[in-house]
Amino acid sequence: MKKINISALVLLLLAVAGLGWYLMAPGGKKAAPANVDLPDVTLPRLGGGTVSLHQFLGKPVVLNLWATWCPPCRREMPLLTKTASERRDVVFIFAAQDRGNTATVVRQYLDQTGLIQEWTLLDSSNVLQRELRTTGLPTTYFFDKKGRLLAKHVGAITPEILTKSLDLIVK
Asked: Domain range spanning residue 79?
């Protein structure tokens, strides 16, 4: 039977934990993955009907993956909602990642907070998380008008990062 080197095992576990922390840390801006486009996905809209993300090609798109149970998501939502109402040159899509009875949960949360978004989509099966290989919530994706991903932000977004990322996609 081989002996296990405890020191090496501890170092390996610390390295894995450190990488996980880095990837999930709030405020962690990550470079956009290469060759990622706006997913060709159709989702239910909170207000009724369905929406294809590809219908927004031709305009810059901010795609925010969030959930009602996520504290950093709740912190960033007022900034994103306010910016969405001010920036008509960019489409803001809010894809709720809540499982279960998503429409009821999301509508209740938005009613309680007064945060109404025009494009709130319901992604209860987390299709977008799989398509975009999302590592945590919230994650905000910035696509140019051709649907190319130019920036990605994991964690609650700040006004500075939001402004820089918007400037990047509206060029």
From this structure: 27-169
In a domain, 14, yes or no: no
| Interval 103-136: pLDDT, tens | 999 999 999 999 987 899 999 999 999 999 999 9
| Beta strand extents in the chain (DSSP E only) | 28-30, 42-44, 50-52, 61-66, 91-96, 120-122, 139-143, 149-154
Say how far apart CA 135 and CA 35 lie, in whole Å: 18
Examine residue 141 and state whether it is found in any structural domain, yes or no: yes
86 found inside a domain: yes
**φ, ψ of residue 74 in degrees (nearest 5):** -65, -35
Measured CA distances, 7 to 12, 13, 17 (Å)? 9, 10, 15
Residue 134, SS3?
coil
- Residues 6 or more apart whose CB falls under 8 angstroms from that of 106 comprise 46, 68, 96, 98, 120, 122
Instruction: Confirm whether 1 is domain-assigned.
Output: no
